[in-house]
Amino acid sequence: MKKFRLRFDPRKLSALAGRYEFEGDLIAENEIIPRIKKKGYLNKKDFLTFCEWKTPRTKPLCKKNDEVFIKDVTRLSFSTNDEKVKIEILLLLKGVSWPTASVILHYASDFQYPILDYRALWSLGLKKPPVYNFQLWWDYTLFCRSLAQKHKINLRELDKALWQYSVENQ
Is 113 within a domain? Predict the structure, then answer.
């Protein structure tokens, strides 16, 4: 298990999260999340939106995914209780790596999963991005859940704070 440690005073979490700005959050919260809750899967347009937000350079690869395949893969991901299946099935989609898969789960799950990002990992004490795999993602998820619960914030707020701290200090 990776050893994570917060690089800053946890009393700064709310202030850091408050300085975070990303217009994509409003689109996700007001448009995409309600569609996911209603249908139980991502359509191609919403899938491409998430892919472009996380890693714009993968958009041409992501576009190659068939609409039905996106629907089937994301429906299974969102409906299973098996954590490994939940994240790893998303890796079947062309252009989707661990960070992009984590974005999809983050928004599709009412923020029950953190976004796997080199900036957030840096804010938790990792000097360079490690090799991404299930164990790293799961350890990171459990650590972030524990940290968020301890400091009475949700994972979206924690994600914003970790990202913002890195932007301001890395």
Answer: yes
Residue 156 in 3-state DSSP? helix
Residue 66 domain flag: yes
Full residue range of the structural domain in which residue 153 is found: 10-169
pTM assigned to the model: 0.93
Q: How many domains does the chain have?
A: 1
Sequence-distant (≥ 6) Cβ neighbours of residue 90 within 8 angstroms: 73, 74, 77, 96, 100, 101, 104, 105
Residue 19 to residue 81: CA distance in whole angstroms: 34
- Distances in Å between the alpha carbon of 110 and those of 7, 47, 57, 107, 123? 26, 16, 27, 6, 23
Phi/psi-derived region of residue 70, left when phi > 0, alpha when psi is between -120 and 50, beta in every other case: alpha
Confidence bin at 5 (pLDDT 50/70/90): very high
Residue 67 has pLDDT above 70, yes or no: yes
- The mean pLDDT value of the chain amounts to 94
Q: Which amino acid is at 169?
A: N
Separation CA 157–CA 128 (nearest Å): 23
Whether residue 2 lies inside any domain: the answer is: no
Q: How far is CA 151 from CA 1, 68, 142, in A?
A: 22, 40, 14
The pLDDT assigned to 2 comes to 64
